[in-house]
Amino acid sequence: MKLRAATRSSPLALWQTRHVAALLAPLGVDVELVEISTDGDRRQDVPIHEIGGKGVFAKEVQLAVLDGRADIAVHSMKDLPSVTADGLTLAAVPARGDVRDALVGCTLTALRPGALVGTGSIRRRAQLAALRPDLVFGELRGNIGTRLSKAGQFDAIVVAAVALERLGAQPAVVDPLGVDLALPQVGQGALAVEARADDPDTVAALVSIEHPSSRRAVDAERAFLAELGGDCDLPAGAYAVIERGEVRLRSLLAAEDGTTVLRDDRCGDDGPSLGLAAARSLLASGGADLLGR
Fold this sequence. Notes:
- This protein is an alpha/beta fold.
- It folds into three domains: 2-93 and 190-210, D-Maltodextrin-Binding Protein, domain 2, CATH 3.40.190; 101-177, 3-Layer(aba) Sandwich (D-Maltodextrin-Binding Protein, domain 2), CATH 3.40.190.10; 226-290, Double Stranded RNA Binding Domain (2-Layer Sandwich).
- It is 32% helix and 25% strand.
- It contains nine helices and 13 strands.
- The chain has helices at residues 11-24, 39-42, 59-66, 122-131, 144-149, 161-167, 200-207, 212-228, 271-290, and strands at 2-8, 30-36, 72-76, 88-92, 101-104, 116-118, 136-138, 156-160, 174-177, 191-196, 236-243, 246-254, 261-268.
- Strand 11 and strand 12 form a beta hairpin.
- Helix 8 (212-228) runs parallel beside helix 9 (271-290).
- The longest helix has 20 residues, at 271-290.
Protein backbone atom coordinates (compact mmCIF):
# COMPACT_ATOMS: atom_id res chain seq x y z
CA MET A 1 0.00 0.00 0.00
CA LYS A 2 1.28 3.48 -0.86
CA LEU A 3 0.09 6.67 0.81
CA ARG A 4 0.88 10.29 0.01
CA ALA A 5 1.30 12.35 3.19
CA ALA A 6 0.70 16.10 3.12
CA THR A 7 2.92 18.01 5.52
CA ARG A 8 4.33 21.44 6.16
CA SER A 9 7.88 21.80 4.88
CA SER A 10 9.53 22.86 8.15
CA PRO A 11 12.22 20.54 9.55
CA LEU A 12 10.01 19.59 12.51
CA ALA A 13 6.99 18.85 10.32
CA LEU A 14 9.13 16.70 8.03
CA TRP A 15 10.54 14.81 11.04
CA GLN A 16 7.01 14.16 12.26
CA THR A 17 5.80 12.88 8.89
CA ARG A 18 8.85 10.64 8.50
CA HIS A 19 8.15 9.32 12.01
CA VAL A 20 4.61 8.40 10.97
CA ALA A 21 6.04 6.78 7.83
CA ALA A 22 8.41 4.72 10.00
CA LEU A 23 5.49 3.55 12.15
CA LEU A 24 3.60 2.46 9.04
CA ALA A 25 6.54 0.80 7.26
CA PRO A 26 6.41 -2.53 9.18
CA LEU A 27 2.81 -2.85 8.02
CA GLY A 28 3.87 -2.74 4.39
CA VAL A 29 2.77 0.87 3.88
CA ASP A 30 5.07 3.09 1.81
CA VAL A 31 4.69 6.84 2.45
CA GLU A 32 5.53 9.59 -0.03
CA LEU A 33 5.85 13.12 1.40
CA VAL A 34 3.89 15.96 -0.21
CA GLU A 35 5.27 19.26 1.10
CA ILE A 36 2.83 22.14 1.50
CA SER A 37 3.57 25.82 2.18
CA THR A 38 0.99 27.27 4.58
CA ASP A 39 -0.14 30.83 5.23
CA GLY A 40 1.28 30.60 8.73
CA ASP A 41 4.70 29.68 7.35
CA ARG A 42 4.67 32.49 4.80
CA ARG A 43 3.52 35.28 7.14
CA GLN A 44 6.02 35.01 9.97
CA ASP A 45 5.99 38.75 10.65
CA VAL A 46 2.41 38.63 11.99
CA PRO A 47 1.33 37.13 15.36
CA ILE A 48 -0.48 33.83 14.92
CA HIS A 49 -3.62 35.00 16.72
CA GLU A 50 -3.93 37.90 14.26
CA ILE A 51 -3.97 35.73 11.13
CA GLY A 52 -6.48 33.12 12.16
CA GLY A 53 -5.04 31.06 15.00
CA LYS A 54 -3.69 27.56 14.64
CA GLY A 55 -5.72 26.87 11.50
CA VAL A 56 -3.17 28.83 9.47
CA PHE A 57 -0.82 25.84 9.78
CA ALA A 58 -3.41 23.18 8.98
CA LYS A 59 -5.95 24.35 6.40
CA GLU A 60 -3.77 24.12 3.32
CA VAL A 61 -2.35 20.76 4.41
CA GLN A 62 -5.91 19.49 4.90
CA LEU A 63 -6.96 20.86 1.52
CA ALA A 64 -4.30 18.73 -0.17
CA VAL A 65 -6.05 15.64 1.22
CA LEU A 66 -9.53 16.85 0.38
CA ASP A 67 -8.66 17.66 -3.24
CA GLY A 68 -6.80 14.39 -3.81
CA ARG A 69 -3.20 15.59 -3.93
CA ALA A 70 -2.51 13.52 -0.80
CA ASP A 71 -4.11 10.63 1.08
CA ILE A 72 -3.26 11.65 4.64
CA ALA A 73 -2.16 14.76 6.51
CA VAL A 74 0.30 14.81 9.40
CA HIS A 75 0.13 17.68 11.89
CA SER A 76 1.41 18.73 15.26
CA MET A 77 -1.76 18.17 17.25
CA LYS A 78 -1.44 21.59 18.88
CA ASP A 79 -1.64 23.19 15.40
CA LEU A 80 -4.88 21.40 14.53
CA PRO A 81 -8.20 23.23 15.05
CA SER A 82 -10.30 21.65 17.79
CA VAL A 83 -13.16 20.81 15.39
CA THR A 84 -12.32 18.37 12.58
CA ALA A 85 -12.85 19.76 9.08
CA ASP A 86 -15.76 18.44 7.03
CA GLY A 87 -14.74 15.50 4.89
CA LEU A 88 -11.83 14.51 7.12
CA THR A 89 -11.42 12.23 10.12
CA LEU A 90 -8.76 12.22 12.82
CA ALA A 91 -7.70 8.66 12.05
CA ALA A 92 -4.71 8.20 14.37
CA VAL A 93 -2.91 9.72 17.33
CA PRO A 94 0.47 7.98 17.78
CA ALA A 95 2.18 7.80 21.18
CA ARG A 96 2.58 11.27 22.64
CA GLY A 97 5.93 12.91 23.40
CA ASP A 98 7.01 15.49 26.00
CA VAL A 99 4.20 17.97 26.63
CA ARG A 100 6.21 20.65 28.45
CA ASP A 101 7.16 24.16 27.47
CA ALA A 102 10.84 24.99 27.86
CA LEU A 103 12.80 28.18 28.37
CA VAL A 104 15.90 28.42 26.21
CA GLY A 105 18.76 30.78 27.08
CA CYS A 106 18.11 31.11 30.79
CA THR A 107 16.33 29.27 33.58
CA LEU A 108 13.17 30.75 35.05
CA THR A 109 14.76 31.33 38.44
CA ALA A 110 17.84 33.00 36.91
CA LEU A 111 15.93 35.45 34.70
CA ARG A 112 16.81 39.00 35.76
CA PRO A 113 14.05 41.38 36.87
CA GLY A 114 12.36 42.84 33.80
CA ALA A 115 13.87 40.21 31.52
CA LEU A 116 12.73 40.09 27.88
CA VAL A 117 11.16 36.75 26.92
CA GLY A 118 10.40 35.83 23.32
CA THR A 119 7.22 33.93 22.47
CA GLY A 120 4.34 34.17 20.02
CA SER A 121 1.94 32.32 22.35
CA ILE A 122 -0.69 34.19 24.38
CA ARG A 123 -1.01 31.13 26.62
CA ARG A 124 2.69 31.10 27.42
CA ARG A 125 2.76 34.84 28.07
CA ALA A 126 -0.20 34.69 30.43
CA GLN A 127 1.21 31.87 32.54
CA LEU A 128 4.73 33.27 32.70
CA ALA A 129 3.35 36.70 33.59
CA ALA A 130 1.40 35.09 36.43
CA LEU A 131 4.62 33.52 37.74
CA ARG A 132 6.78 36.57 37.09
CA PRO A 133 4.80 39.83 36.67
CA ASP A 134 8.07 41.69 36.04
CA LEU A 135 8.78 39.93 32.76
CA VAL A 136 8.53 41.75 29.42
CA PHE A 137 7.49 39.84 26.29
CA GLY A 138 8.53 40.18 22.68
CA GLU A 139 6.93 38.57 19.63
CA LEU A 140 8.77 35.52 18.28
CA ARG A 141 7.59 33.52 15.26
CA GLY A 142 9.09 30.99 12.90
CA ASN A 143 10.15 27.36 12.93
CA ILE A 144 12.37 26.05 15.71
CA GLY A 145 15.58 26.79 13.84
CA THR A 146 14.50 30.37 13.20
CA ARG A 147 13.49 30.89 16.81
CA LEU A 148 16.72 29.45 18.15
CA SER A 149 18.70 31.70 15.80
CA LYS A 150 16.90 34.71 17.31
CA ALA A 151 17.37 33.62 20.92
CA GLY A 152 20.24 36.06 21.38
CA GLN A 153 17.80 38.95 20.96
CA PHE A 154 16.06 37.95 24.20
CA ASP A 155 17.01 36.95 27.73
CA ALA A 156 15.12 33.70 27.05
CA ILE A 157 12.69 32.26 24.53
CA VAL A 158 9.93 29.69 25.02
CA VAL A 159 9.56 26.62 22.80
CA ALA A 160 8.00 23.17 23.04
CA ALA A 161 10.46 20.81 24.71
CA VAL A 162 9.46 18.00 22.34
CA ALA A 163 10.54 20.05 19.32
CA LEU A 164 14.09 20.32 20.65
CA GLU A 165 14.13 16.58 21.33
CA ARG A 166 12.81 15.58 17.93
CA LEU A 167 15.25 17.78 16.04
CA GLY A 168 18.21 16.90 18.26
CA ALA A 169 18.73 20.58 19.16
CA GLN A 170 20.91 21.11 22.23
CA PRO A 171 20.99 24.77 23.33
CA ALA A 172 23.41 25.54 26.14
CA VAL A 173 20.62 26.34 28.60
CA VAL A 174 17.23 24.60 28.51
CA ASP A 175 14.78 24.79 31.41
CA PRO A 176 11.73 22.53 30.91
CA LEU A 177 8.75 23.93 32.78
CA GLY A 178 6.66 21.39 34.65
CA VAL A 179 2.94 21.30 33.95
CA ASP A 180 2.31 22.72 37.43
CA LEU A 181 4.14 25.87 36.30
CA ALA A 182 2.97 26.06 32.70
CA LEU A 183 0.00 24.05 31.53
CA PRO A 184 0.61 23.09 27.89
CA GLN A 185 -1.38 23.90 24.79
CA VAL A 186 -4.10 21.41 23.92
CA GLY A 187 -2.47 18.48 22.12
CA GLN A 188 1.10 19.62 22.73
CA GLY A 189 3.58 16.79 22.21
CA ALA A 190 1.10 14.71 20.19
CA LEU A 191 0.82 14.08 16.45
CA ALA A 192 -2.40 13.99 14.45
CA VAL A 193 -2.90 11.95 11.30
CA GLU A 194 -5.97 12.81 9.24
CA ALA A 195 -7.53 11.01 6.27
CA ARG A 196 -10.59 11.47 4.11
CA ALA A 197 -13.67 10.23 5.93
CA ASP A 198 -14.74 8.30 2.81
CA ASP A 199 -11.44 6.39 2.50
CA PRO A 200 -11.93 3.33 4.76
CA ASP A 201 -8.81 1.48 3.55
CA THR A 202 -6.53 4.35 4.52
CA VAL A 203 -8.33 4.88 7.83
CA ALA A 204 -7.96 1.18 8.62
CA ALA A 205 -4.21 1.33 7.97
CA LEU A 206 -3.80 4.37 10.22
CA VAL A 207 -5.74 2.86 13.11
CA SER A 208 -2.86 0.41 13.55
CA ILE A 209 -0.53 3.22 14.73
CA GLU A 210 -3.06 4.68 17.17
CA HIS A 211 -1.93 4.94 20.82
CA PRO A 212 -5.16 4.54 22.83
CA SER A 213 -4.05 6.40 25.98
CA SER A 214 -2.70 9.34 23.99
CA ARG A 215 -5.90 9.48 21.93
CA ARG A 216 -8.08 9.36 25.03
CA ALA A 217 -6.16 12.23 26.63
CA VAL A 218 -6.10 14.36 23.50
CA ASP A 219 -9.83 13.87 22.91
CA ALA A 220 -10.53 15.33 26.37
CA GLU A 221 -8.29 18.34 25.73
CA ARG A 222 -9.77 19.01 22.29
CA ALA A 223 -13.30 18.87 23.66
CA PHE A 224 -12.29 21.48 26.24
CA LEU A 225 -10.96 23.83 23.58
CA ALA A 226 -13.88 23.24 21.23
CA GLU A 227 -16.33 24.27 23.94
CA LEU A 228 -14.36 27.47 24.52
CA GLY A 229 -14.79 28.20 20.83
CA GLY A 230 -11.16 28.99 20.11
CA ASP A 231 -7.73 27.72 19.29
CA CYS A 232 -4.28 29.14 20.06
CA ASP A 233 -5.71 32.67 20.08
CA LEU A 234 -6.95 32.04 23.64
CA PRO A 235 -4.97 32.26 26.90
CA ALA A 236 -6.03 28.68 27.69
CA GLY A 237 -4.24 25.42 28.35
CA ALA A 238 -5.18 21.82 29.12
CA TYR A 239 -3.41 18.58 29.91
CA ALA A 240 -5.00 15.16 30.32
CA VAL A 241 -3.44 11.93 31.56
CA ILE A 242 -4.81 8.49 32.29
CA GLU A 243 -4.68 7.68 36.01
CA ARG A 244 -6.03 4.38 37.38
CA GLY A 245 -8.10 3.93 34.26
CA GLU A 246 -9.71 7.38 34.43
CA VAL A 247 -8.96 10.57 32.54
CA ARG A 248 -7.58 13.37 34.70
CA LEU A 249 -7.92 16.75 33.00
CA ARG A 250 -6.22 19.90 34.24
CA SER A 251 -7.21 23.09 32.46
CA LEU A 252 -6.99 26.84 32.77
CA LEU A 253 -8.19 30.15 31.42
CA ALA A 254 -6.20 33.31 32.12
CA ALA A 255 -6.17 37.02 31.57
CA GLU A 256 -3.65 37.84 28.84
CA ASP A 257 -1.54 39.79 31.36
CA GLY A 258 -1.58 36.93 33.86
CA THR A 259 -3.33 38.90 36.59
CA THR A 260 -6.11 36.30 36.76
CA VAL A 261 -5.67 32.57 36.25
CA LEU A 262 -8.67 30.25 36.61
CA ARG A 263 -7.97 26.53 37.02
CA ASP A 264 -9.96 23.31 36.89
CA ASP A 265 -8.88 19.77 37.79
CA ARG A 266 -11.29 16.86 37.40
CA CYS A 267 -11.43 13.13 36.65
CA GLY A 268 -13.89 10.94 34.79
CA ASP A 269 -14.35 8.04 32.43
CA ASP A 270 -15.43 9.95 29.35
CA GLY A 271 -12.78 12.38 28.07
CA PRO A 272 -14.91 14.53 25.76
CA SER A 273 -17.59 14.96 28.44
CA LEU A 274 -14.88 15.89 30.91
CA GLY A 275 -13.47 18.53 28.57
CA LEU A 276 -16.92 19.97 27.98
CA ALA A 277 -17.64 20.18 31.71
CA ALA A 278 -14.25 21.76 32.48
CA ALA A 279 -14.72 24.47 29.86
CA ARG A 280 -18.21 25.29 31.05
CA SER A 281 -17.05 25.43 34.66
CA LEU A 282 -14.22 27.86 33.87
CA LEU A 283 -16.48 30.03 31.73
CA ALA A 284 -19.08 30.17 34.50
CA SER A 285 -16.51 31.01 37.18
CA GLY A 286 -15.27 34.14 35.42
CA GLY A 287 -13.71 32.84 32.23
CA ALA A 288 -16.42 34.32 30.05
CA ASP A 289 -15.46 37.77 31.34
CA LEU A 290 -11.79 37.10 30.65
CA LEU A 291 -12.66 36.21 27.06
CA GLY A 292 -14.76 39.35 26.68
CA ARG A 293 -18.09 37.55 26.21
